[in-house]
């Protein structure tokens, strides 16, 4: 009897330990299955956006908002803003001039409207380029506008260079000074195109408005108000209307290519 009692106790102890082991194994198996189930909820290859990111993906076609952004805000808006600023600058430059001592003329110094037009175009084109770089970068980062993704990357060497696609492959070998020089070259090209489109026509109109000198004086003269102010304001507005949408589109298209390549937003 004592031996049978001890056997029953030993058998019961063995069964309890075995059941505990199986229970532990089942618990570990459930944890493992839950972990696999949770991991399977995340699709392979899908990039999860960081919290707080408002970045939009490149569009497959032009959207109404992109049209408004390019031609409304950066077209008409830029024309009004640039025209107003240039008008105010011209008012400060010319309205207080003593035209008897410092006449306002078309070509000759010290107050040359033709020369003023060239300086205006250089400064405005340069400022607009970098301002649009900053604004487009900011607007795409906060989701105000989507990059353009329906335009294919160019294959022509010149267009790839102009769109700065060569810098993406050689960025590690380019210094900041070299990259800045690349920007200046493109600004210069845009200025040259704008110059031939606007400057000759502007000078031609001024020859009609101004008063031609007498005798050997071949230049054209202007009063301090309001021809110089209107000229500079209209020129600045037309330049903004012509160049700002082009520059905005430049950065939207370029960023669309960068994102399709798996790159990051403009830096």
From TrEMBL:
Superkingdom: Eukaryota
Region (Disordered): 1-59
Extent of Polar residues compositional bias: 16-30
UniProt keyword terms in alphabetical order: Membrane, Transmembrane, Transmembrane helix
Keyword Transmembrane helix in record: yes
Pfam family, one: DUF2456
Spans traversing the lipid bilayer: 67-93, 113-135, 184-210, 230-253
PANTHER family the record matches: FUNGAL PROTEIN
Protein name (record): Yhl026c-like protein
Organism, scientific name: Colletotrichum melonis
């Amino acid at each position: 009897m004592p031996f049978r009692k001890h056997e029953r106790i030993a058998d019961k102890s063995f069964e309890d330990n075995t059941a505990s082991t199986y229970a532990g194994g089942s618990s570990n198996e459930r944890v493992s299955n839950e972990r696999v189930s949770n991991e399977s909820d995340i699709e392979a290859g899908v990039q999860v956006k960081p919290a707080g990111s408002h970045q939009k993906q490149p569009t497959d076609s032009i959207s109404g908002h992109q049209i408004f952004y390019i031609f409304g805000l950066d077209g008409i808006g830029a024309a009004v803003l640039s025209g107003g600023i240039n008008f105010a600058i011209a008012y400060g430059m010319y309205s207080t001039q003593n035209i008897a001592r410092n006449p306002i003329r078309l070509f000759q110094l010290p107050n040359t409207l033709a020369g003023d037009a060239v300086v205006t175009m250089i400064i405005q084109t340069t400022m607009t380029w970098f301002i649009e770089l900053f604004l487009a970068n900011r607007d795409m980062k906060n989701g105000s506008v989507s990059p353009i993704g329906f335009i294919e990357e160019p294959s022509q060497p010149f267009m790839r260079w102009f769109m700065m696609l060569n810098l993406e492959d050689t960025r590690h070998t380019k210094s900041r000074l070299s990259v800045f020089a690349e920007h200046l070259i493109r600004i210069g090209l845009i200025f040259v195109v704008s110059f031939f489109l606007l400057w000759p026509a502007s000078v031609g109109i001024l020859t009609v408005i101004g008063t031609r000198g007498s005798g050997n004086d071949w230049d054209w003269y202007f009063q301090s108000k309001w021809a110089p102010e209107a000229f500079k304001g209209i020129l600045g507005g037309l330049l903004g209307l012509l160049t700002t949408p082009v520059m905005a589109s430049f950065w939207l298209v370029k960023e669309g290519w960068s994102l399709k390549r798996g790159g990051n937003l403009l830096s």
